[in-house]
Amino acid sequence: MSHGSAERSGAYVSFAYDRQALEDFRQEFPRARWSDDRGKWFVPGKRAERRFALWMDRQLSAHDPFANEKGRDAFAFDPIFSPYLEVGNDLCLRTPYSRTIIGELRQVPWAYWDDTARAWRVPFRSYEELQRR
């Protein structure tokens, strides 16, 4: 994802708000800047998206290294059936626009909007909260 100007490359990223995660993010990406227009962080650099994905993996693993496996097992035992849900390495939700749905998805820990896929991404670790909402 590019920043908009031809000379700057980077990625717009977002993650669920958590005070410690924000501090870690600011330390890992000191040149990152908040975009009020997009409601996301802009991380400069050609490898920004990859660097952010690696950072996010470390953040998730630090909380509970087996959370994704637990969530995947919970999904296998009690799956959500929906034409809006695709299952892969995570849960991918493509729904018609709804403020209510967006409000609910923003409350799911670690869920984020993926501009490239034009869908919400929810890691399996957040499956139970997604199911509740």
Observed structural traits:
5 helices, 133 residues, 4-stranded antiparallel beta sheet, alpha+beta, globular, disordered N terminus
Q: How are the SSEs ordered, and which strands pair?
A:
Layout: E1 10-13, H1 19-28, E2 33-35, E3 40-44, H2 48-63, H3 67-77, E4 85-87, E5 91-93, H4 99-106, E6 112-114, E7 119-122, H5 127-132
Antiparallel strand pairs: 1-3, 2-3, 4-5, 5-7, 6-7
Query: First CA to last CA: what distance?
Result: 30 Å
Strand content: 15-25%
What is the helix fraction of residues, given as a range?
Answer: 25-40%
Sheet of most strands? 4 strands, antiparallel
**Approximate shape:** globular
Determine the mean pLDDT. Answer: 85
Strand order of the largest sheet: 4-5-7-6
Uncertain parts: 1-7
Describe this structure in words.
- This protein has 133 residues and is α+β, with helices and mostly antiparallel strands.
- It is 38% helix and 19% strand.
- It has helices at 19-28, 48-63, 67-77, 99-106, 127-132; strands at 10-13, 33-35, 40-44, 85-87, 91-93, 112-114, 119-122.
- Strands 4-5-7-6 form a four-stranded antiparallel β-sheet, with no helix packed on it. A three-stranded antiparallel β-sheet has the order 1-3-2, with helices on one face.
- Mean pLDDT is 85; it is low at 1-7.
